Backbone:
């Protein structure tokens, strides 16, 4: 998301949304690390590396094409829904283990991720801005 923000100066509403989500994601990662620590597990270095590389590769690949802004918007929207599903599974796992505090934290994360509706609300305005920039001959992507 941070890489995307640096390339979206023509889309202030998108930048604002991503900035807020970056902060939310950092807090969610802290909750997840606490839950894993309580279970005697650590955050896998391999998982962190794969996630970071996948995000960078995705943003880079999308950046090679004219419609990178729209592709990143769609990918972010889909990824938020994937996170909602993962947190719901974590709730079930935490409850099965009797870890109600962690289940509560994961419920908060679900609510935060349901802000995907906020992403949905900017798809049309961002697309209109993209079309406006493209048809006027201006550069529409970062």
Residues:
């Amino acid at each position: 998301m941070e890489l995307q923000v640096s390339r979206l100066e023509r889309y202030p509403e998108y930048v604002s949304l991503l900035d807020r989500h970056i902060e939310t994601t950092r807090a969610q990662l802290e909750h997840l690390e606490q839950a894993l620590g309580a279970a005697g597990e650590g955050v896998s270095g391999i998982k962190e590396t794969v996630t970071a590389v996948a995000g960078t590769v995705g943003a880079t690949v999308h950046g090679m094409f004219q419609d990178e802004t729209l592709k990143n918007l769609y990918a972010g929207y889909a990824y938020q829904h994937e996170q909602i599903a993962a947190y719901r599974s974590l709730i079930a796992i935490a409850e099965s283990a009797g870890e109600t505090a962690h289940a509560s934290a994961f419920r908060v994360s679900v609510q935060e991720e349901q802000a995907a509706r906020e992403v949905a609300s900017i798809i049309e305005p961002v697309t209109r801005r993209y079309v406006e920039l493209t048809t006027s001959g201006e550069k529409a992507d970062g």
